[in-house]
Amino acid sequence: MKYITFAVPCYNSENYMRRCVDSLLIGGKDVEIILIDDGSSDRTAQIADEYEIEYPDIVRVVHKENGGHGSGVNKGLELANGIYYKVVDSDDWFDKESYQKLLVKLKAFTGERPDLIVCNYVYDHLDEGIKKSMDYKNVFPIEKQCTWDEIGKFYPSQYLIMHSLMFQTKVLRESEVKLPEHTFYVDNLVAFIPLASVQSMYYLDVNLYRYFIGRADQSVSESVMIGRVDQQIRVNKLMIDYMGQVKNLHRNQRGYMRHMLIMIMTVSSIFLIQAKTDECFEKKKELWRYLKTNDRADYGKIRLSLLGRLCNLPGKGGRQVSVTGYKVVQKIYGFN
User: What residues contact residue 210 under an 8 Å CB cut-off, 6+ apart?
Assistant: First the structure.
C-alpha cells in the first residue's frame, strides 16, 4: 500500500532537487515519488532517471514537454496510486522527524480517513539563517479528526497554502481540479478548489514542509511576481469563477474560501499597485469589477473586509498606505 503519492514537478532543478528527493525517500516503500521532468535543459532528467534506477519500488519518472508547474501537478494526479496526494516543489524538502510522525499517523487511522490532512510549514531563508513557522493551532483541534463545524477563526493574514495541505487522492479527483498550463501561481488553485469537496480534516501540529525562500529567480520573489502579474490575475480570476459557481457549502467552508479569496485579491492588488503604471492601476480596478460581476454573493463581504478596504484606498497616498501595510505583514511573516 502506498500511503502518499508525492508529485515533484522539476524544471532545470539539478542544483537542488536531490535535497528534496532525498528527504522524501525516508518514507521508503510506504510512499511513491513521481518526478515530473518538465522539459528541462540541464541534468534534471538524468538525475531523475538515476533515482528511478536506484529506487524502482519508490520512484517513478515522467519526461514531458514543457507545460509549466500546473501540467506537472496534473500529470502526477493522473498517475497517483497513493491514498493521499502531496505536491512538493523541487527546491523544498521535508523535515525528517515530522515526516516520520506523519507516516505513523497515516498507518494508525482506523475507519474513514480524513479528506484533508493539515500540517505546519516553515518559511526557510537558508542563506540568511532565518526560519518562520506557520501553524494552525488557533484554527483546528490538534490531532483530532474534525468537520467544518469545529474549526476556529483564521487570523486576517493566515490561510492554507498548498505546502500545508495533503488531500486524499480520490477527493482531488472528485473535485475535478485541473490546473492551467504555462501559468505560475497555480498552487493557489490546488489549495482552493478541492476545499469545496472536503468534509473531514485532521491537523497534525508538526513543522513538516520546509519552504525555501531566497533564490533571485524564484517565482514568489517580489520582483518576479510583479513581472508576472498577469499570470497572478489569471489564477485570481479562476478562483473568482469557481467561487461564483460552487453551491451547497457549509457556512464555515464558504467563509474560509471567501477569506482565502480576500487574501489573493489583496496580493494581486498590491502587485498591480507596485507596478506603478496607469495600465496596472486600471487592471486592478478591472479585477475588482470582475469579482463584482462573477461572484455577487461574496463581493460585498470581500470588498468591505479590512484587506478589501486597505487595497482600494483612493489616490497616490492611498496606494502608498496599501503597500506599506503589505510590507509590514511581509516583514512579520518572512514570505517572498
Answer: 92, 93, 94, 95, 121, 122, 124
